[in-house]
Amino acid sequence: MTRAEEPDTARLDGPEGDPPALLIRGLRKSFGGNDAVRDVDLTVAPGAFVGLVGPNGAGKTTLLSMAVGLLRPDAGNAWVAGAPVWPAQDADRAKALLGVLPDGLALPQRLTGPELLTYLGRLRGLPAPVVRSRVEELLDVLDLAAAGRTLIGDYSTGMRKKIGLAAALLHGPRLLVLDEPFEAVDPVSAAVVRAILDGFIAGGGTVVMSSHAMPLVERLCDHVAVLDHGALLRAGTLDQVRSGHTLEEAFAELVGARPPARGLSWFGS
Length: 269
Ligand SMILES: Nc1ncnc2c1ncn2[C@@H]1O[C@H](COP(=O)(O)OP(=O)(O)OP(=O)(O)O)[C@@H](O)[C@H]1O
Fold this sequence. Notes:
This protein is of the alpha/beta class and 269 residues long. Helix content is 33%, strand content 23%.
């Protein structure tokens, strides 16, 4: 990996002089000959709620995975409140500030939700009484308390998403990076997750979330970044990106989506 030089964060300071909550410079990743992410730059101000959108295969998961330290970039780097994410051995400060919900999170199948959260809380260095009360509160709020004795291997997809979110929130991060947090989550739980994220932003946190649900992004996010074929097509405030249209219309226009010329041949004529 080529290490990008740490940029002059002062140049990118927000109004209060804080460094960006997340700064991405020149992140790049190829798989074989496939350029999944091509030299992406993105600056996320503290307190922003950013929706990362893009067609299937655009590179969203690859970009977010590199930005949080889960996937080694071919080039570039990311900084969380000025702390580097790469190289991995220098990432302790960045990781302490980060809460991550990765795509397809591999969870231990033989633990219950409370066991997993308790283990992660202790691993994060939180005192036992703090872990106990936070775990109880998270399970209660996310409607997972009744499944306290169920093994994670027996969880539904939505329950797995929610326990992943609980794990991301447990240590009180300042930046949440969430890969499709609402996927497979029922409407009642989605309202709970929205309220949690609103509260997180109101408390001064920052959220970067990938999603395919445009109405949800319009409802929650104040900034949007559009990724296609590994490159950032547009990034700005929600109003800048949708420029007088719905986000769905603006997205289709940006990525050049066209309705199919014809239906499937075997569906009759
Ligand atoms: N581990 C991998 N090995 C090989 N190719 C990969 C790997 N991970 C991702 N890719 C490729 O990189 C590209 C970007 O994939 P990525 O999962 O980042 O897209 P995405 O925007 O998150 O897609 P989706 O919206 O469908 O989740 C795709 O062409 C994908 O096939």
